[in-house]
Amino acid sequence: MKRNGLIFFDIIMGLFVISLVVVVLFPILSLTQKSFIHHKKLAQMSYISESTIERLTLKDKKSLEFLEELETYGELEYPYLNDIDYKSIVKLASDNPYLWEISVTVKEAKGGEDNVQLNATIRR
Questions:
Q1: Is the dihedral of CA 73, 75, 78, 84 positive or negative?
Q2: Between vectors from CA 88 to CA 60 and to CA 68, what angle results, nearest 5°?
Q3: CB 3.0-4.6 Å disulfide test: which of 37, 70, 71, 78 passes with 88?
Q4: pLDDT tens-digit map of 9-43
Q5: Are strands 75-77 and 115-123 parallel, antiparallel or unpaired?
Q6: Based on C-alpha coordinates, what's the Rg of the chain?
């Protein structure tokens, strides 16, 4: 007596188990990818805020002019940023005669929810 039906049933059950594993793992992989993209964006924003502060501490002509304008207005968008996806806003936090206490906030140019804020003190 041949039992050819059992092989067909084994193949169907194997396909069912494989599809069940794929259905369970697909949302997990999707969330992992979204999380990776989010953390990459935050890392880029952090890098931009740190580089903005580093550029302001150079004490070259452009940074000194920008810091003088910042004293006048209190809050300015940093114009020397070469990234179109993000904008960097610099705020003057206090009026110390010896130090500039600034706060750099990097936001998405498209108006996203995420932002990174970094505070720093620069000697005048």
A1: negative
A2: 40
A3: 78
A4: 888 999 999 999 999 998 998 899 999 999 999 99
A5: unpaired
A6: 27
| 3 state SS of 24 | helix
Using the predicted structure, report yes or no on whether residue 5 has a pLDDT greater than 70. Answer: no
Partners of residue 101 on adjacent β-strands:
121
Domain boundaries, the chain: 4-123
Question: Residue 20: what are its φ and ψ, rounded to 5°?
Answer: -65, -40
pLDDT (tens digit per residue) in 64-80: 899 889 888 989 998 88
Distance CA 54, CA 94 (A): 19
Percent of the chain beyond pLDDT 70? 96
Characterize the bridge pairing of strands 99-108 and 115-123: antiparallel
Which amino acid would we find at residue 11?
Answer: I
Paired tokens of 51: 């580089």
Instruction: Give residues with Cβ within 8 angstroms of 75, minimum separation 6.
Output: 89, 90, 91, 92
Angle at which helices 61-73 and 4-56 cross, to 10°: 90
